[in-house]
């Protein structure tokens, strides 16, 4: 079952040199680790590859990024232990813990623990300017919309959002790079992105095409927040070259996750490395601006790993006992 979940995910491992500032108990530490990310061309892959390398460099444990189908698959991989770490979004995390994941129906993924807050995932659409589509309500019936990899956050929620807005569409799946190529070639009409901004693939599209960043209206935002676990979000002007004013969107929080069986001291040190060097995290991806202590309380779904909880409580967080594994 695990192999069928993983598929043919690629694993890129990097060797690291020990860089611990002080001696810690390394009893039972893993000799290597992988971080489940998502498809190449998306924010998860860039962010996850970067923080895997950072932990490797600082703790001297070989680690790297693993290309996956995104948040839903990462929950499965981390639960089974096939990936020690990963990245997920609150919506997919909630349904996976409840045993409602489409990848493994009935399997309650309760061996997944929270590691640290990442950033919000805005939902917004992109079309070529030549399509004439400037608003969600202008998407023609039967349009081919790419929602990202099957089982990803975008694929889980964006189609339901389109249906709620009365938009008829043909569903297409694929990695962000692949969907970007299909949009340029006229094989699809719109991409519904759900990823931390700026999304690398959107910037690549802008480099050779005129594109429209399609925002939600205030009324559409209100409907989305009433139906789904999302909140209002403004994509700042200048995030993309073609975005001259803030764009309304809706968003969902992302958290890094770890297998609950990892040693407490290892997860504590990995948490310290990430949370105490935001400048390095910002070099990895600008979305890490929200990877800060103050956002620990954005997790209301995933129980904390004891090692991560120890770092956050030492720094002032108040985590209830029932939210620590």
From TrEMBL:
Signal peptide feature range: 1-21
The UniProt record lists the keyword Cell wall biogenesis/degradation: no
Pfam families: NMT1_3 (PF16868)
InterPro entries in UniProt: TRAP_TAXI
Domain of life of the native organism: Bacteria
Keywords: Signal
PANTHER family given in the database record: SLL1037 PROTEIN
Protein name: TRAP transporter solute receptor, TAXI family
The organism of origin for this protein: Yoonia vestfoldensis SKA53
């Amino acid at each position: 079952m695990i192999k069928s979940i993983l598929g043919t995910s690629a694993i890129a491992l990097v060797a690291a040199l020990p860089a611990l500032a002080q001696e810690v108990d390394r009893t039972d530490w893993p000799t290597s680790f992988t971080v489940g990310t998502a498809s190449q061309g998306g924010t998860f892959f860039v962010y996850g590859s970067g923080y895997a390398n950072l932990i490797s460099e600082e703790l001297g444990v070989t680690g790297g990024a693993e290309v996956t189908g995104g948040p839903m698959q990462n929950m499965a991989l981390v639960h089974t232990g096939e990936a020690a770490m990963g990245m997920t979004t609150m919506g997919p995390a909630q349904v996976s813990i409840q045993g409602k994941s489409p990848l493994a129906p009935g399997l309650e993924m309760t061996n997944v623990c929270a590691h640290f807050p990442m950033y919000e995932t805005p939902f917004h659409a992109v079309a070529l300017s030549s399509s004439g589509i400037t608003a969600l309500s202008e998407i023609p019936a039967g349009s081919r919309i790419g929602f990202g990899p099957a089982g990803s956050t975008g694929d889980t929620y964006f189609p339901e959002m389109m249906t709620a807005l009365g938009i008829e569409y043909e569903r297409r799946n694929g990695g962000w790079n692949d969907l970007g190529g299909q949009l340029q070639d006229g094989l699809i009409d719109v991409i519904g992105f759900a990823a931390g901004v700026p999304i690398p693939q959107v910037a690549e599209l802008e480099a050779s095409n005129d594109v429209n960043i399609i925002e939600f209206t205030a009324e559409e935002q209100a409907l989305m927040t009433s139906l789904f676990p999302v909140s209002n979000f403004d994509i700042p002007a200048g995030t993309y070259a073609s975005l001259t004013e803030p764009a309304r969107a809706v968003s969902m929080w992302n958290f890094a996750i770890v297998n609950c069986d990892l040693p407490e001291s290892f997860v504590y040190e990995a948490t310290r490395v990430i949370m105490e060097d935001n400048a390095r995290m910002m070099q990895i991806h600008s979305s890490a601006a929200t990877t800060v202590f103050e956002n620990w309380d954005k997790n209301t779904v995933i129980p904390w790993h004891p090692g991560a909880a120890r770092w956050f409580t030492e720094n002032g967080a108040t985590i209830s006992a029932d939210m620590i594994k």
